[in-house]
Amino acid sequence: MKKLFVLSITALSLISIYSCNKNNDTVSTTGKTQYLDLPVTMARYYSDSSTFMNSFADSMNAQATLGRVLFYDGHLSINNAISCGSCHKQTLAFSDNVAFSSGYESKLTKRNSPPIQNLIPKNLPILFNGNNIIRNISTTLFWDGRASTVENLIARPITNHVEMGISDMNTLSTKLAVLPYYSSLFTAAYGSKEITADKISTAIAMFIAAIDSRNTRFDGFMAGTTKFTAQEVEGMTLFNGKYNCAKCHHLTDSNNIGPYGGGGIIPTNFVDIGLDDTYGDLGRGEISGSSADNGKFKIPNLRNVAITAPYMHDGRYKTLDDVLEHYSHNIKGTPNLDTLLQDASKRPRQMNISDNDKQALIAFLNTLTDYGVINDAKFSNPFKTK
To answer: The domain that contains 163 carries what CATH number?
Structure first.
């Protein structure tokens, strides 16, 4: 019988020895029989040269491998119907192609599912400490910034009453413990088959943090290895100059690792871009409790923006052309409208973006697509249907 996956651990290092039986690793989710099909050789999510403590690279890769399985496992929802990957699809740069995603009972989420690539900078040191990872950064995640680290975002959709419906993360640990494939995976990642809520969150965070999207035509252009068309050059010039998009959507940072939202390396700024006359969703204000934050949402990462439609926190715009039309003629005079979107009289700006400029801007935004990350097998669903 084909052997798949088991890791044995020595005192000084981890040695990959795959030996789980595929036929015994069958599970039933959403009415389909599935089996776990991991590669014979463990994927390298983190290499020795990119980690702060090289000796822990194998453990980090084992955690990310476990995180990949957890990310795509429907058993993380109350009725085995929804996984993290249900709403964050690899082919869509880990976003969803509907305005609101369906939860475990087919109820719709409150907001659009944003892409989850590049959540931490590529060169950020990762310290490995026992069963936990510690990142030298505190950022803001979700549209309203209610999570401050990659680890503490994990439990939120799992325990959400609409999304995955697990009432208690400890209950989830018990549920996963009876599945045949997790004993070896948790042992490889943590040195023990014991499943805890903390280990679940850490492993998924390790997987998500490895989703790195920096292999685009834009990156090649910045490195001098790729040429842009005249239209793409024009679009980048308009993006940085005439329409000042780069003021919020930074194209580079001190590490030269590509386009992010406001606030430097990681998008941390929240802005009101004048979507509605009145606030139907308070956004950041719902978290901060400050009326000055009402209607403000996190500036999105623009990696793979051409394939992450629909756009905005509520998915109201189906195309990039729709987004540009908003800035061109439809900015509303909301109470907290960002000053960059106001004219000299503090009225909403009318950018009047011409059709030619729209086409050039969209051509440039298409250079931010990373086809590698959306096709990379180590980020794909490891469950196969019989």
So the answer is: 1.10.760.10
